[in-house]
Amino acid sequence: MIDLSSLTLAQARDALRRRAFSATELTDAHLAAIEQARALNAIVEETPERARAMAQESDARLARGEGGPLEGLPLGIKDLFCTAGVRTTACSHILDDFVPAYESTVTANLWRDGAVLLGKTNNDEFAMGSSNETSHFGPVISPWRRRGSEQGLVPGGSSGGSAAAVAAGLCIGSTGTDTGGSIRQPAAFCGIVGLKPTYGRCSRWGIVAFASSLDQAGPFARTVRDCAILLRSMAGHDAKDTTCVDLAVPDYEKAVGASIKGMRIGIPKEYRMPGMAAEIEALWECGAQWLRDAGAETVEISLPMTKYALPAYYIVAPAEASSNLARYDGVRYGLRVSGRDVIDMYEQTRAKGFGKEVRRRIMIGTYVLSAGYYDAYYLRAQKVRTLIKRDFEQCFADGIDAILTPTTPSAAFAIGEKGRADPIEMYLNDVFTVTVNMAGLPGISVPSGLDSQGLPLGLQLIGRPFDEETLFALGAVIERAAGSFTPEKWW
Questions:
Q1: Four-way CATH pick for 1-491: 3.30.980.40, 3.90.1300.10, 3.30.450.70, 3.40.50.720
Q2: What's the mean pLDDT when you consider all of the chain?
Q3: Rounded to two decimals, what is the model's pTM?
């Protein structure tokens, strides 16, 4: 008998339409998988009753021939997306018991198209982290292990729960948010596909904000095709979000398998970092060769402002975070810790409600926005951001269709291995991904190989604004050449 939790989203969609099994059976298989995988700590809020009710409604629609594009497909939703009637905490103590009365636009689009909510996935607190170790609910454990080792690994962050859940077969797809690499990095660490769309392609309304000019929702799935299917439902204009573009949403699935013959792929020389692992370098060249074999041309390009991207990002993002998180004061919603007066109540609430990493970033952000430092830090970082964007624009103007880079500087690392003594060590994990957010471009990570210890590695493709279709076409070529990667079950 087929293992329903091992199907790709496209396989399950097509089988449901043939009535090979029911949406209820598919949902039950994934709920059972979640129960057996609690050791991963990937799901922080399970919704089995709601999932079964939604699946039954999907079965009724399918029986009438009225199924939507995602009818009956069970998904995990990052705990940053507000879900009406379902606890949404951003994995922070300060929002322990927050139950929204409204639905985020992205999740509303998914339910409109027939998807089923399995539960809310774990993430770094307020999406601040690169390893999913800052969550108030504890770290997510990757479904992957180093060959011959029992040591727990991180799944990447901040969307680590979403990535781990897809890789482990707990859901057929999931949502994430990407502020500096929080979809692409965990996708690479977990051996799955993750897409960060162009800024403005998906509405941010109803998503707990980290850095508003950088945040963007996107999909996780096991294949490029599955991500294309999910993005079509997630994307679309939303009048409630003034940064959401009013552009038609293409049928992204049609781009999967399209010819890439004649495309020019940029290979940025600045991404060849000193000390880069030889296996990362070799994988990068292998990916370039796969694209050449499919008819594309690779061209060395220069993105000179890349070296300033990481420090500029870690000024802009904390600055916006310090402003966005000012609303959590114990007055309107969330945790309240009593104090001697209202100021003391604010201080006590925020000190107890926020974790260490969130407090660190709030302090950095407040500092760079303060009188006397705004011009020296924040304004200068925004100027650097403009120059980073200009680098990409020049490359695309010169006829480059997309850019190929590694997704991460290494494979997944052990829990507790990085960042405790020096936070900058953790921040360096974003070195290949932050430029995409700073420039507002689309980027996709595709699993491309295994390292010497048997852990997955990903390659990143960066595209022109609102040209996700090219990324899907190129990503499918890499996916076909590299094959798929599945962790050996230990949980």
A1: 3.90.1300.10
A2: 96
A3: 0.96
